[in-house]
Amino acid sequence: MKLWIVTNKYLRTRKFAELEEKFMSACKKRGLEFELVFNDGGLVTTFKDDICTGKIKNDGNPVLFWDKDILLAKALEKSGHRVFNSSEAIKICDSKCETALALAGVGINTPETIISPMTYTNIGYTDFDFLRESIDILGLPLIIKEEFGSFGAQVYKAATYSEALSICKNIKGRFILQKAVTSSFGRDVRIQVVGDKCVSAMLRYSDTDFRANITNGGKMVPFTPDKAWKEAAIKTSKALKLDFAGVDLLFGKDDKPYICEINSNAHFKNIDDCTGSDVALEIIDYILCEMNICDEVHDDLQ
To answer: pTM for this one?
Structure first.
C-alpha cells in the first residue's frame, strides 16, 4: 500500500512544514510507502466518463488529506480513494455555522448558539435587529465567532450591545453568536481524538485573555481527562464522522465539559511537545488499521 499525503502549497510556514515532517517520519517508522503532494499538484480535470487528479493517480490508495481544499478531497473520493478525513467532515468542521448545526440535537453539551442569517456579500447586513434578539436570548457577555477562522483570531467577546454591534459590522460574512461560558474564561482543554480513542490531552490557560489558544499567548500543561471528558470528545468526533480531530472543550458549571470547537486538521505539535505524544504516528497507525494492514493497536490514553 502507498499513502498519498496532501497538503497546501500556499501555507509554507515552518509550523505547517513541521507537521508534514512528522507524518513522513511516522510513515518511515512503519515502513509505509508514501508520496507528499501539494494541492496544486492534484489539479482536478473532469471528463465525460472519468476524473483526473493530476499527480495523484487513480490507484485506489488511501489519502491523508491535511488540507481544506474540499473540492480536491471530493474529487479524490469520486475517483476511488479512501480519504482521511472525508471531504464532508472537513467541510463541516471548517464552518462554525455548520458545526453548530451538526452538533445540535445529538446529546452533546455545547454553548447555546445562534447562527447569523445569510446575506449577500455585495450587500452585507443592512440592519441588526437579529443581534438585539440574540442578546435577549443569550445574554451578555456574548461570544462572537466568524464562520471561518483558526487559532482563536476570529473569536471576540462583547460586554455590551454597542461592542457586539461594532464587532459584527466589521465581519465580512456569516458568524455565530454564543452564550458565554464564563466559568471557562482563560482556560480550555484540547483532546486529540484518533478513531475512537483519546490519544493525548492538554490544558491551555491564559492570565490575560478569555481565549486560551497558545498562538494568542496561552500556556499549556498535560491534562488527564476523566470518563465524561473523553466520552464528550469521542462522541463529538463520531457525530461529525471524523477519523481524527482536535476537540476543544470548555469548563462548564461544576467542570462539566462543553464542546467549544472541533478541528479536522488540528495542529498537534504543541500537544506533542506538551505531553510527549506522537499524534502523527497514531494517525498513520489508524489509517493502516482502517486499510486492514495494521500490526498493533495502541492503548487508549490512561
So the answer is: 0.93
CA distance 184 to 211: 9
DSSP, res 41:
G
Cα distance between residue 272 and residue 5, in whole Å: 20
Of 215, 66, 203, nearest in space to 152 by CA: 215
Q: pLDDT (tens digit, 9 = 90+) per residue, 53-87?
A: 999 999 999 999 999 999 999 999 999 999 999 99
> Could you give the count of Cα atoms lying within 13 Å of 57 in the half-sphere of its Cβ?
6
Asked whether the predicted pLDDT for residue 300 surpasses 70, the reply is no
Residue-wise pLDDT tens digits, 198-247: 999 999 999 989 998 887 788 999 999 999 999 999 999 999 999 999 99
Q: Which of 185, 200, 166 is nearest to 260 (CA)?
A: 185
Q: Which domains does the chain have, with CATH numbers?
A: 2-84 (3.40.50.20), 112-180 (3.30.1490.20), 184-290 (3.30.470.20)
What are the residues facing 256 on neighbouring strands?
none
The residue ranking higher by pLDDT, 18 or 297, is 18
Q: What does the alpha-carbon distance between residue 166 and residue 176 come to, in Å, rounded to a whole number?
A: 15
DSSP assignment of 177-217 equals EEE--GGGTTEEEEEEEETTEEEEEEEEE-SS-S---GGGT
HSE-up (13 A, CA, CB side) for residue 137: 14
3-state secondary structure of 96: helix
